[in-house]
Amino acid sequence: MSPDRPVVRLPESELTWRFSRSSGPGGQHVNTTETRAEVLWSPTDSSVLTPEQKARVVARLRGRLVDGHLSVVASAHRSQLRNREDAVRRLEGLVAEALRPVKSRRPTRPTRGSVERRLDAKKRRSQIKRGRREW
């Protein structure tokens, strides 16, 4: 994890789980066990976030929210336990990324060399096109 990203630990009591049969490798095992894990979490009902943090998470992840819940699905592993751990880790990563403060852009000016290169390229291109017209 990067040092500027906050570490978020979501309590198990705030998570809702759904399990289903997963596709992929596993032979007959996949046809009988529900290893695919989906975790649902509601940022507005969370007790670990301040009201400002809740607003930031909802605003940043609004495209991923369905009925106010954030959903993460994991089915990469053959065991339900590992898929559960993967889903929680990815969910906490999403929330931590949403809580990270936005870096403000410092306006910069193009260098003189880059401006000159751009103008030279434009002149060369116009010469090529002008040469096509004059037969």
UniProtKB/TrEMBL annotation:
InterPro entries: Pep_chain_release_fac_I, Pep_chain_release_fac_I_sf. Residues 8-132 form the Prokaryotic-type class I peptide chain release factors domain. The keyword Metal-binding does not apply. It is an enzyme of class 3 (hydrolase). It comes from Aeromicrobium senzhongii. Belongs to the prokaryotic/mitochondrial release factor family. It comes from the Bacteria. Its EC number is 3.1.1.29. This is Aminoacyl-tRNA hydrolase.
